[in-house]
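Researcher: Quick test of sequence recovery. Tokens follow.
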């Protein structure tokens, strides 16, 4: 016998489908890893297969223009899975303040942020540019993102002396 959903279930489904149009906040939980890092002086390149550097990432965003433009705060905790002898596996905590633009007719978003490496070690600021996409139902979506980081200053860094490219994925909730 075929059962039809109750009226309450139908209303809940309609509310979930309409929620992203009125979403005011987004919450992201995910992970990322550096794919490649290049240091200019002395010239060296570290690939994912040389040293795996994953991060756990959490973000809270506020939509300035619902579904299109958000202001975001993100915290990342990075570590090395296979550190060289004598080095700590913990790379540290980074706070990223940024903005995400999701044009309504394009299935991609772009994100710009200023990552601030807080600890351990010396404080330094970077510049991050990212492109990504969201896949799935309106309220909870899988995100996939590629990012590029370039230091601005601090901790012995000068503008662009290191280039880091990373990939990330996780789940985003629009509330």
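Model:
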């Amino acid at each position: 016998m075929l059962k039809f959903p109750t009226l309450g279930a139908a209303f809940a489904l309609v509310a979930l489908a309409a929620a992203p149009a009125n979403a005011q906040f987004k919450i992201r939980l995910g992970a990322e890893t550096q794919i490649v890092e290049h240091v200019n002086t002395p010239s060296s390149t570290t690939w994912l297969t040389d040293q795996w550097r994953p991060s756990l990432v959490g973000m809270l965003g506020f939509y300035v223009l619902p579904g299109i433009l958000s202001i975001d705060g993100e915290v990342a905790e990075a570590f090395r899975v296979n550190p060289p002898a004598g080095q700590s596996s913990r790379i540290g905590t980074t706070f990223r303040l940024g903005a995400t633009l999701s044009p309504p007719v394009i299935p991609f978003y772009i994100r710009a942020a200023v990552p601030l490496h807080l600890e351990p070690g010396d404080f330094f600021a970077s510049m991050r540019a990212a492109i990504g996409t969201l896949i799935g139902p309106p309220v909870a979506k899988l995100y996939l993102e590629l990012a590029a980081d370039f230091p601005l200053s601090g901790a012995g860094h000068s503008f662009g002396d290191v280039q880091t490219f990373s990939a990330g994925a996780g789940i985003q909730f629009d509330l």
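The mean pLDDT is 87.
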